[in-house]
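Below: protein 1.
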Amino acid sequence: MNKLIKFSVYTVLVFLTSCGAFFNQPIKISKARIGESTSRKSILDTILPATETVVGVYKFRDHTGQYKLVENGSTFSTAVTQGGTSILLKSLEESKWFTPIERENIGNLLNERQIIRSTRQEYAADAKQDQTTSIPPLLFAGIILEGGVVSYDSNIITGGSGARYFGVGASTEYRQDRITIYLRAVSTSSGRILKNVYVSKTILSQGISANLFRYVDVKRLLEVETGVTKNEPTQLAIKEAIDKAVELLIIEGVIDGLWVPKGGDKIIEYLKSEYNKEKEEAASTALLDREFDDRRGRIAIGAYGSSSHISGDYSNPVGKMGGGVKSKLFLKNPALSLSSNLGYFELENEDSFKKKFLNLDVNLDYTILPYDNFSPYIYGGIGSITNNRDLKDMLLKFQYGLGIEYLPSNKFGLYLFGEQNLMFNDKIDDVVQGKRNDYYWKIGAGINFYFGKPYNRAKKVLFE
């Protein structure tokens, strides 16, 4: 019965770990359907032009020459679609700001028009009728669009994690690629480049797996394995990047007076405002979608709870709860700050030692990622402790530690920390014995509230 229960538990664990794979397995042939739409929302969704502009696209090329990565051997399949022109024409049509005309296969169009003209001439001669052989003239483009996919960067970031316990394990892996495109508008009357825009888009691949390897009996081995891999389609990523490039081309063109929207100056001011917001966001975003922002105010006040463990001359230490208040002052470098904390804690060894203490510490803190909302930090400094309310018999110490802070907003942060406190003497437990001084560990969690304006250094650091 126990073996059956264990088997059932292991099976349920594996199933729950990899339920996404079970619920998304393709078990039947799919029908053709309308192509997927990207999830991108445009500023121009409800804004139309006063008049559409006729544009021509001869070729939107893949300039990368990149081939698909494979683990073994080689492949002649390209990493980037060769149909960029078709995607760009579709984006221009969907924007409702342009009238795209055929130029990629202009030779085919001219040949067909010649066939039409010749057929009409022959028909008119045979029927001896006075019929015109002319056909409407082709539209000409006042603007042609040029550009292409200029880079495809593979594996700009890779990673994963996993765990295994008693034969039950699960793991996850991820990889991120990046494409970059340029799009420019060129005047056919003067050859002048009217506008040039640049857009990049990441492509994410993820894999999740779970497995079970367990002896359910002396002669019976259970092995279970499942997994799922999800790859963002490159074609949809390129479509989204091209859509964004067309949007930028329109907005920057409206701001520069190249095209006019319906609604006049109010719409232009609205587009300027939204575009400036997006530019500021882009300016404070680094590679890998890391947002650089001056998050923390110059002053922080908070509180924490902790558990302390002594390592002294007695055995069997017991963890005891404590707490305190903390203040922090940031220096001109936003990664550095001076902090102080006043706390209360207890130290205890089972059946041998127990005391209550007050501590006063001063530290220099270094925040490793000061512009991110999730950052590790390290600190070190000096302090003192006493077990007397009148603050007599102060014992000096040195402390250092590390922690992790998460900011749900720029006004407050939640943090975890762990530190070691090294005493300058061996008197903390009232016993002087051995060559090493006493010390104690402290782990805890707390909250910081930030006040005042930050130093506004994020963008300067980003572009240095």
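Below: protein 2.
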Amino acid sequence: MAKAKKATKKAAPKKAAPKKAAPKKAVKAAPKKAAAKRKPNAAFMKPLTPSSALAAIVGASPLPRTQIVKKMWDYIKKHGLQDMKNRRNINADDKLKPIFGKATVSMFEMTKLVSKHLK
């Protein structure tokens, strides 16, 4: 019986490395400004008074819009109101229905509807 020869791969010839371009003259970059801390927008930080329906969730004291949205999310997560299939939707319970005006709201629509309840 004849022995089968093993298939061997030939090494591919090495390609010559591309020549590097001649170094360009160094151009001095303009001095960078000191990294300024980001300032929050004053409109977001202004304390607003929630309506009576919204006060049942976030409290009656005036709060900035950012804190109101944060407390709304705390309430939603605590009570499991985020839709399980589509996590972008929020299912309203008895306290949220007067604010939203319907049973299901998207998270992007929520902030628009909440802003109607702020003075």
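The CA atoms of residues 47 and 64 lie 4 Å apart.
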